[in-house]
Design a protein that fits this description.
121 residues
Length: 121
């Protein structure tokens, strides 16, 4: 499973700078909207900018973390090195679970914000 995530991350690794640039631009747009709008009509792009920022940061973190995954445990290594490798792989599995939960929560939040945005504008 980790190797599949590493394959996906390496395949899309070239998008990391683009995701970071889009995240900075989306955050800048959201801050500009917050600082310059005087009524609700001026806030029309605030929710999409925040959602775009969150998704870009999430994808950037995924690509950064899973680009280098520890290799599978080799049985010919000494006991201590095998345990260290297992601990590293377990931590990556925990990060994978955390990313799954955070992605589900971000998807739910995006859905709710999209509904609120549709109702408001």
């Amino acid at each position: 499973m980790l190797e599949q995530m590493q394959g996906h991350a390496r395949r899309w690794l070239a998008l990391r700078p683009v995701l970071l640039l889009v995240a900075v631009l989306a955050l800048g747009a959201a801050l500009r909207i917050l600082l310059t709008s005087v009524d609700q009509a001026g806030d029309v792009y605030l929710i999409p900018a925040l959602v775009l920022f969150l998704w870009c940061i999430m994808l950037h973190a995924f690509l950064t973390l899973f680009a280098q995954v520890p290799p599978p445990v080799v049985t010919t290594l000494p006991w201590r090195q095998r345990m260290l490798m297992r601990c590293r792989r377990v931590s990556y599995y925990l990060f994978l679970g955390l990313f799954a939960v955070l992605s589900a929560l971000l998807l739910l939040t995006s859905w709710q914000l999209a509904g609120a945005w549709r109702m408001m504008y």
